[in-house]
Design goal:
This protein is an alpha/beta fold. The chain is built from three helices and ten strands. The structure holds inosinic acid.
Amino acid sequence: MKIKEIFSPAQIQQRIAELGQEISREYQDQELYVVPILTGSLIFAADLIRQIKGVDLQLHCMAASSYHDSTETSGNVQINLDLKVDIFNKNILIVEDIVDTGTTLLKLREMLEARHPRQIKLASLLSKPGRRIYEISIDYLGFEVENQFVVGYGFDYQGRMRELPYIGVLAP
Ligand code: IMP
């Protein structure tokens, strides 16, 4: 299968360094719980946290999967791995791979809000605004992409291609 590169490793790392600087400024000397949503955001989160400096950072992972049922507009989001820590009064930074329809983020946010953190912000490597069903505000965004299926750098096609160092689209 042919893959057309849309973001090179260097472009990705450059953007992540910028996001890291912004996040570092925002949370300087403060406590921050970084919450990657597995599996897609694993690689982005690993690179992002190493660009965050001077922050009292902890890493706590969650895993979610969403099922889009064509008979209803709202997808079903299932939590496969929940946080092991209490987030009451904590600053939370959710780290996602992509905001597509927004279903996953909407449900996740609702769930975490119910635990009364101090604040929840969102970092997402990619966004497909053209596919949005729910309005989601992304505080730290890597890149916007068109309505196309991306692979690599954490993004999978049927479970594969996550290890590619670049982001690409499947070429027919
Ligand atoms: P949403 O709930 O529709 O926003 O979908 C979010 C999830 O769908 C993401 O966390 C990804 O795991 C997956 N996803 C959406 N678009 C793509 C894509 O282009 N490539 C790979 N996975 C995708």
